[in-house]
């Protein structure tokens, strides 16, 4: 069977830009052909921040929905013009995600019609809504991709994506042919680090590159312990979160506490970085059936050596035999995982195959994820 050529597009809660992954997909196999990224222009990024923070009016959201759709298309067209792309999976930009009952809601911006019109192929988008309608959290949805690419017979492997939010997929293949799966968000990853870097640099820095500021600071254990009391960390899966819990309001509250404690900007970054690492390990201890033998780190945060070191130290406290790697070391660039996962989900939708794992999202049934826009 000839593989299908599918383009996956992902822009996450960090609001820094878009990742594109061109993938060859056939049953039981996915291969990355090309990967590229496009940073949001500053004006567009500011508008997305406003929308995610609830500061946009309805007409502004409508305009942004179309402007973002055009941006996705213009950044895709030059790279795929010569290839025979058959299908696109567009995650879109989440600006609201509140999966709690009785009135759950999730919303992703980015009108798919512009991609369909520009590339002249079908586009699958709005993946999360069908899972929410079926009683699920609408997240995490990269679990099938993680299982396909990183699952290993005889091992308990965790794939941990470090985007704006941290999410883990536990793939336990120690006991049988079928994996025992568990997946959920663990809390903040880069979102607080990026907000702090932007705040302390007066907007000149979008992130703490290579964890340089965090590496210079001192950890404030008292504040860290207080922040770890947030009920999300101890709530049982299935669970998911976003900027609603760990975005600007949480940042402003914790920043005020840090000022009262006379922390320097380096101390703040150190303590936020430790919050990501320790909350991740806390979730593993409380919610996984056993410590994993291997942890694969992916996403932008996996490129931060300070964060990577802290996560490794925390996980080794759980089990000294745990091996921590990056997805790069296993042949998948850190930024490729999420867009490739949505390429796979688009392919599954096109083939009328369910895209969610109800045991990980909390849905009552397996569902066809995504809506199709034809050219």
Which features does this protein show?
375 residues, alpha/beta, Nucleotidyltransferase, domain 5, 2 domains, seven-stranded mixed sheet, five-stranded mixed sheet, 23% strand, globular
Describe this structure in a few short sentences.
This protein is of the alpha/beta class and 375 residues long. Helices cover 41% and strands 23% of the residues.
| Topology-level CATH name of the largest domain | Nucleotidyltransferase, domain 5
End-to-end C-alpha gap: 25 Å
- Helix % is 40-55%
CATH superfamily of the largest domain: ATPase, nucleotide binding domain
Report the biggest beta sheet as strand number plus sense, adding barrel if it closes.
Answer: 7 strands, mixed
Percentage of β-strand residues = 15-25%
How many separate domains? 2
Order of helices and strands: EEEHHEEHEHHEEEHHHHHHHEHEHHE
Low-confidence stretches: none
**Total count of strands:** 12
Q: Structural class, please?
A: alpha/beta
Which shape, going by the Cα principal axes?
globular
Number of helices: 15
What is the highest CATH level, the class of the largest domain?
Alpha Beta
